[in-house]
Amino acid sequence: MQKKVAVVFDSAGTLLHMYRVAKDAGTGMILEDIQSTLLVARKPHRALVIVNADLEEVSYCDPKLTLHGLIKQYDIKLDISCASRPFELEEVYGIIEKSDVCVSDVNDVVSHVRGHCPDIFYLAAGIIVDAQDYMIPYVLSTAGKMYSDTPAAIATLQDMGVDVFIASGDGYNNLEKLAMSIGIPMSFVHGVATTRDKERIVRELQEEYDSVVMVGDGMNDILALRAADVGILTVQQGDERPDVLRRSADVVVGNILEVATVAKSLLNSETLENHDQWPVFRS
């Protein structure tokens, strides 16, 4: 009997090629091609927060309006995407209230991304909060476009009978557009998923499936990579990945299409111990 296999994908950097920038709130410098999860992981009391605002509308706001004022005036929802320790939104709002980060800071990073990333699939803004220093050290913006092989990779897995899920720290608005574009039902999409949420999702799926594969590219995927029956680290984004992340994966691939090779082996009832022979680049 063919095994039941589920493949769980992160989105940013895995299904989508990302361009990310950060503005150092202290110096005003724009930092290009940053890894937002690493900025969080540098210190033990940081969180990456999604600002679910209409960025076109924000561009017309008073540039001197504080982020706290913007959130209050437009009733903007915040989500915690990942954190280096447990965080509550109440704590995030308290830090924002004391910060002098304003609309101009948000517009600066969004404008920079728009100017440097053509063919944007989606655009988002966020902040990093630091509870130890009680401040916002960085204002962020990120844009993504689908890898050219993403639709084919998902279609190949689905044609094989594999159930495909998304577990991502991104918000549901952006994920809905992505899921619709590649034929993944929203019931299989888990948005605003923290590092521990992703691990929990993998473990819950393991109760329903014979094998669960996690495909990710960042530090916020590390627990899910370790928990999965097969953890696949993708490096197609092109930037360096920490050694601890590489060691947490069973397989490292340079192209998302290679995920199907792993899934095919599992469907054909090959044991997990045989994964050294899979024709993909090993970490």
From TrEMBL:
Which domain of life, per UniProt? Archaea
Where do the coiled-coil regions begin and end? Answer: none
Q: Which GO terms describe its cellular component?
A: membrane
Q: Name one Pfam family in it.
A: Hydrolase
- Enumerate the UniProt keywords alphabetically: Hydrolase, Translocase
* Gene Ontology terms for molecular function: copper ion binding; hydrolase activity; P-type divalent copper transporter activity
Q: Name one GO biological process term.
A: copper ion homeostasis
Q: Which InterPro entries does the protein's record reference?
A: HAD-like_sf, HAD_sf
For this entry, the protein name equals HAD family hydrolase
Name the species this protein comes from.
Methanolobus zinderi
